[in-house]
Amino acid sequence: MGKQRLTVVSVAYPFATVSADPVGGAEQVLAHLDRALVAAGHRSIVVAPAGSAVAGELRATPPVPARIDEAQRTAIGRALDGTLADVIAREQPDVIHFHGLEFHEHLPPPGPAVIATLHLPLDWYPPRALAPERPRTWLHPVSADQARRAPPGARLALPIENGVPIPPRAPRKGCFAVALGRVCPEKGFDDAIDAARAAGMPLLIAGAVFPYPAHRRFFEERIRPRLDGLRRWIGAVAGARKQRLLARARCLLVPSKVPETSSLVAMEALAAGTPVIAYARGALPEVVEHGETGFLVRDVGEMAAAMRRIGAIDPERCRMRARQRFPLERMTAAYLARYAEVARC
User: Fold this and answer.
1) Number of domains in the chain
2) What is the CATH number of the domain that holds 220?
3) CA distance 130 to 103
4) What is the pLDDT of residues 149-165, one digit of tens each?
5) Residue 168 resides in a domain
6) d(CA 284, CA 265)
7) How far apart (Å, rounded) are the C-alpha atoms in residues 294 and 276?
8) SS3 176
């Protein structure tokens, strides 16, 4: 008997496009799974904003608006519900896989199996989201630390840890640090700038400012005034440019002010042979091995001090540990096995 060909519908966060190398971590995981499904001979349908590029079949929701407010959230949420209902009726999928924060608002009626990956801190989800009443619905954390933080009553499946591709051998290192990700209050890039200045090291901040009023206000009030000739914001980077930036950097700074659930960017940096200096929050101590692949610190002063001694970390050791601990193939294989399992339940 041959392997069952599955139809899997991946539902993206409706305010972030999906591409071959998207900015957001949830979109990055979705894109890898979309490609893995197609490569394995399954049917992959992706519900994502117009303008997305996928390996499978795109069912587009409205494009990401220039400003995200409550009116836009309501309108686009309704459009997502309509698109998903149409896909379910027409395609009869085996599994629906949600990646967005508000997945609980878009759960379909009982029928196909549903998986939701919890990419964000669990206290960002309302309690009812973590204890769904819908049958055949499974919630997967992305790290052991995230699972340990589950509130009473949460019904979680086992974590499926994130993974990243391992690029070719890293080029020669530059003299600058990098901070990479969404430019928003919780990522702490203001601390990264202050630490880089204290350490006397150039810093490149690479990331998008999403069209949320709070994000734009943070950039204008907390980031832009701190920039100078040596501490620069270069906007969003993707693809080969992002890989070169990470590989050339002397270190990656992750001064997150919230408990990180995983940190794909830290994994990508280590895979490129770049040590990571991070606040010891959330799952970051599961990713960064203190004194071996980087340093775990508590504040700006400790981050600056770690930057001054980052030369003690061996880049090849970082690459070796990333190959052992965060291979992309392990993540995609775990999800594909899970799809087959829940489709039979």
Assistant:
1) 2
2) 3.40.50.2000
3) 10
4) 999 999 999 999 999 99
5) no
6) 11
7) 5
8) coil
Q: What distance in Å separates the CA atoms of residue 258 and residue 134, rounded to the nearest whole number?
A: 30
- pLDDT, tens digit, for every residue of 231-277? 999 998 988 899 899 999 999 999 999 999 999 999 999 999 999 99
Domain assignment present for 52: yes
Contacts for 220 with CB less than 8 Å, ≥ 6 apart: none
Does residue 220 sit in the same domain as residue 114?
no
| 20-69 residue pLDDT tens | 777 788 999 999 999 999 999 999 999 999 999 999 999 999 999 988 88
Pair of tokens at residue 220? 């204008």
Per-residue pLDDT reduced to its tens digit, 191-228: 999 999 999 999 999 998 988 899 999 999 999 999 99
Q: Residue 117 forms beta bridges with which residues?
A: 140
Angle, to 10 degrees, between the axis of helix 189-199 and the axis of helix 300-308? 50
Range of the domain at 269: 177-325
The DSSP letter of residue 100 is: S
Q: CA-to-CA distance for 103 and 105, rounded, in angstroms?
A: 5
The whole-angstrom separation of Cα 205 and Cα 222 is: 13
